[in-house]
């Protein structure tokens, strides 16, 4: 029951964030939508740099897809019943992250908040690319268990799209210095997610080992 509730929450949050990003930038006026952020110093969101604009729109689309697709890849019953669909979704997940992370590296050089902010977004893009590549590599080598572990890590970085906004609201707007809070939110969003998922993976390993030990006895 708890797993189903957790999955439902993640799926709903992922879907809402993906749709809201599409609406915000493709339907509404992104300049008006980012008025508060622009007033805090994020000049690029005035949407005056054409190349940056194109990169941002590509990043939004390619980040939204794995955010929505990702949760379904972890449903074992659905995977077993629709293996080919699972594989197709997996291919879309990997390809879109490949594109989005590379574009994200470019966008990181224009991040608000100075060197630490740029480094934070740069690190996020590299972590996203690396964890997804590892997951892909292991499934190509038919190492299912390792593939699943790295997929958890990959989606933890994917989910940083949401946790970044949560941390920005909690830290960025709660401090007198928005920039300092914004930079902290960048690092907390993906490093925090990776730490959390790593602890969860280790907990699962300990639980399996304990169960195996009890059965053998």
From TrEMBL:
It holds the Pfam family DUF2306. The chain crosses the membrane at residues 7-27, 54-76, 88-109, 115-133, 154-175, 181-201. The lineage of its organism: Bacteria, Bacillati, Bacillota, Bacilli, Bacillales. It comes from Anaerobacillus alkaliphilus. The keyword Nucleus does not apply. This is DUF2306 domain-containing protein. Keywords: Membrane, Transmembrane, Transmembrane helix.
């Amino acid at each position: 029951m708890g797993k189903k509730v957790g999955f439902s929450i993640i799926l709903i949050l992922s879907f809402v964030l993906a749709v809201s990003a599409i609406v915000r930038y493709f339907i509404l006026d992104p300049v008006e939508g980012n008025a508060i952020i622009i007033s805090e110093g994020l000049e690029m969101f005035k949407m005056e740099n054409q190349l940056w604009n194109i990169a941002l729109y590509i990043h939004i689309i390619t980040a939204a897809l794995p955010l929505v697709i990702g949760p379904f890849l972890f449903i074992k019953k659905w995977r077993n019943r629709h293996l080919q669909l699972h594989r197709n979704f997996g291919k879309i997940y990997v390809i879109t992250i490949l594109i989005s992370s590379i574009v994200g590296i470019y966008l990181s050089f224009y991040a608000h908040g100075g060197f630490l902010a740029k480094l934070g977004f740069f690190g996020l893009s590299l972590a996203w690319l690396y964890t997804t590549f590892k997951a892909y590599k292991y499934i190509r080598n038919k190492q299912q268990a390792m593939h699943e572990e790295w997929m958890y890590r990959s989606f933890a970085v994917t989910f940083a799209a949401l946790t970044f906004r949560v941390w920005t609201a909690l830290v960025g707007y709660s401090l007198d210095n928005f920039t300092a809070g914004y930079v902290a939110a960048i690092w907390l969003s993906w490093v925090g997610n990776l730490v959390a998922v790593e602890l969860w993976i280790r907990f699962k390993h300990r639980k399996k080992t304990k169960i195996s030990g009890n059965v053998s006895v």
